């Protein structure tokens, strides 16, 4: 296949995927379509739930393995769409549709990259994995597949980064915090107002700064995003609950941050999960070195992806731009798909990661 037919086929495939709704948790129809498509071009496909993966035809455990991964699911369409989110529309070099940018463009380009790289012997194995439930960090997505795959030595996670390599990514921890008081009549001086108790801790979350600041990801960021208290106007509330969104850098694990936070606040703190940690790859990794040599610009990403669920070195990199994700009239430039395929191939062809 020549370069032109590669990107044209990728665009055609993306148009088909856009037309099949694949909101997180409801990806079966799109997964069925993609499985049939991959099998139709003569490539064997493995499936678990709504996750698909293909392996190098000459796979050998004596070689290291590179994973090419992106996700088939999308968020729900936001308000404000003027175009139809499930109708692929190409206008003035842009392909519009839900999931076009995040992350359908990566899904289709990485598949073509897999096909091209496996046409000749490489010093590594390749696995192409399309996973589900990325947008909700679901447990039926990539996390359910990784344990059944051979050991992975490098992961390329396809997300819209303008084809610049994200060599670090912030993690996420969501905290449910409860300040406890004593109920009483609002007209009397009895009771303990849980809202007033919560205010002290909310002030701490707003102003506290953790010591370790990452040169790539900056400081840990904490945001109060939800609050709830009280049952009616004349009752002193005995509980005030609020939610904290914590974006960690690679210098702290989520468990470390939880311990530090719990030691500072008086309210009861519960973490929904510790599983979405920050990630970082060494600047001296062969893929990163090759990317820099080719003019790519490594950076730290503030947004979360399935990188957080991978215990091996990873780089987030793909066509499109992150700021278009989760927006009305989402689009990807057709030229971005065209340019992404040779960039991926030039970075990966013959790469020695041993």
Word description of this protein:
The chain has 354 residues and is of the alpha+beta class. The protein is 28% helix and 24% strand. It has eight helices and 18 strands. The protein has helices at residues 3-18, 28-40, 100-117, 142-145, 194-207, 254-264, 286-293, 334-348, and strands at 46-48, 51-55, 65-71, 89-91, 94-96, 125-131, 154-157, 166-169, 171-180, 184-185, 221-229, 235-236, 239-248, 268-271, 279-280, 299-301, 314-316, 331-333. The chain has a six-stranded mixed sheet with strand order 1-2-6-3-7-17. Strands 11-13-9-14 form a four-stranded antiparallel sheet. Strands 4-5-18 form a three-stranded antiparallel sheet. Helix 1 (3-18) packs across helix 3 and helix 3 crosses helix 8. The longest helix is centred in the first third of the chain and has 18 residues, at 100-117. It is elongated, with a radius of gyration of 23 Å. The relative contact order is 0.19.
């Amino acid at each position: 296949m020549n370069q032109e037919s590669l990107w044209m086929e990728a665009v055609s495939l993306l148009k088909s995927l856009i037309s099949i709704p694949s909101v997180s948790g409801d990806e079966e129809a799109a997964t069925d379509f993609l499985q049939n498509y991959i099998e139709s071009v003569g490539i064997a496909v493995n499936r678990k739930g709504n996750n698909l993966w293909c392996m190098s035809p000459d796979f050998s455990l004596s070689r290291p393995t590179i994973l090419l991964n992106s996700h088939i699911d999308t968020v729900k369409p936001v308000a404000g769409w003027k175009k139809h989110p499930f109708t692929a529309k190409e206008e003035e070099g842009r392909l519009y549709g839900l999931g076009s940018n995040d992350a359908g463009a990566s899904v289709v380009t990485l598949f073509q990259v897999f096909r091209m790289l496996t046409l000749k012997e490489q010093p590594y194995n390749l696995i192409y994995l399309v996973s589900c439930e990325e947008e909700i960090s679901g447990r039926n997505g990539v996390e359910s597949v990784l344990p059944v795959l051979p050991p992975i030595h490098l992961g390329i996670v396809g997300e819209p980064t303008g084809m610049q390599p994200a060599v670090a990514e912030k993690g996420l921890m969501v905290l449910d915090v409860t300040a406890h008081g004593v109920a009483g009549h609002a007209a009397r001086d009895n009771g303990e107002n849980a809202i007033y108790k919560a205010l002290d801790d909310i002030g701490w979350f707003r102003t506290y700064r953790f010591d370790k600041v990452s040169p790539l990801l900056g400081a840990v960021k904490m945001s109060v995003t939800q609050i709830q208290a009280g049952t009616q106007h004349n009752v002193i509330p005995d509980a005030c609950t609020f939610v904290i969104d914590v974006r960690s850098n690679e210098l702290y694990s989520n468990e470390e941050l939880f311990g530090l936070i719990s030691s500072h606040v008086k309210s009861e703190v519960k973490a929904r999960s510790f599983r979405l940690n920050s990630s970082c790859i060494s600047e001296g990794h062969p893929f990163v070195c090759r990317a820099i040599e080719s003019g790519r610009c490594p950076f730290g990403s503030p947004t979360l992806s399935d990188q957080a669920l991978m215990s091996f070195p990873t780089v987030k990199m793909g066509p499109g731009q992150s700021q278009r994700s989760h927006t009305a009239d989402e689009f990807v430039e057709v030229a971005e798909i065209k340019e992404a395929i040779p960039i991926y191939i030039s970075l990966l062809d013959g790469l020695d990661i041993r």
